[in-house]
């Protein structure tokens, strides 16, 4: 239930005109960049079907993202290592790779649209003999992203607002396991509502030093099985229930890195028993090494405003 309900940190930050879309923790941002997220962290307490608290899980992960061109990027990463209490267990997640393309962006209106193809590679994590085994099959995911900042509005206090959204269709390459259980196709969807004090300080009015690099958000992510759903087993959660988390988050945007933390609140008992935590430290390689490690393999870097 924890793996179905808890969110894994999503990564990378995007700049469109004067707008910084941070590397939010529930969904990915809609751009491509050169970055290293190390570490990502997730904590959640699962619930048992009878309502009692279940396993407590901690996860450390990572991701490296590289631009191929200004609009095309590749990333590799993993949810990494999970250790669990009640009962004790541990294991490594599979490796994931992703190719992402920005179809359209408009700097004046702080608007961006992108899509991606992601593969989780089976057998690249812990073996089936491990106490937390990785999936022994690949999962292919099609992704769609959108982001919109509201700096083009005429009402000053609304201009720091921005929204992002992501829609994924996840397709396991093995429909039925050896024990007869099934691996459903799922739809994952989420959104963030952001209020950038960084944007306010630069483009609306000055804010106190303590807050000028912060972007508070409210985030949500959900997963719904849509096909190849198993018959419910006695004493277990229904396999067709939607799981997910919502909660507030805050991001500190420095010149070369970002730190983010979120309280993830389960939407139902199948998603978790108590409030969990997501966190990330994300290094901006395109700012740390703009002429080497942080530039696209081909062509010029992304156009950026001088006062984002």
Brief account:
The protein is mostly beta strands. It has helices at residues 2-5, 197-203, 285-288, and strands spanning 14-16, 19-21, 35-47, 53-69, 72-85, 89-92, 95-106, 111-121, 139-149, 161-172, 185-195, 214-227, 243-253, 257-266, 276-284. The protein has 3 helices and 15 strands.
Could you give the count of β-strands? 15
Model regions low in confidence, pLDDT < 50 over at least 5 residues: 1-5
The overall number of domains is 1
Percent in helix: under 10%
CATH-level-2 architecture: Beta Barrel
Cα-to-Cα separation, first versus last residue = 41 Å
The mean pLDDT is 93
Describe the sheet with the most strands. Answer: 12 strands, antiparallel, barrel
Q: Which structural class do you get from the secondary structure elements?
A: mainly beta
- The side-by-side strand order for the widest beta sheet comes to 3-4-5-7-8-9-10-11-12-13-14-15
Q: What Rg is obtained from the alpha carbons, in whole angstroms?
A: 20 Å
Give the percentage of residues in beta strands. Answer: over 45%
What is the CATH superfamily classification?
Answer: monomeric porin ompg
Report the principal-axis shape. Answer: globular
- How many DSSP H or I helices? 3
Tell me the CATH topology.
Porin
CATH class: Mainly Beta
What is the element string, with H for helices and E for strands?
Answer: HEEEEEEEEEEEHEEEEH
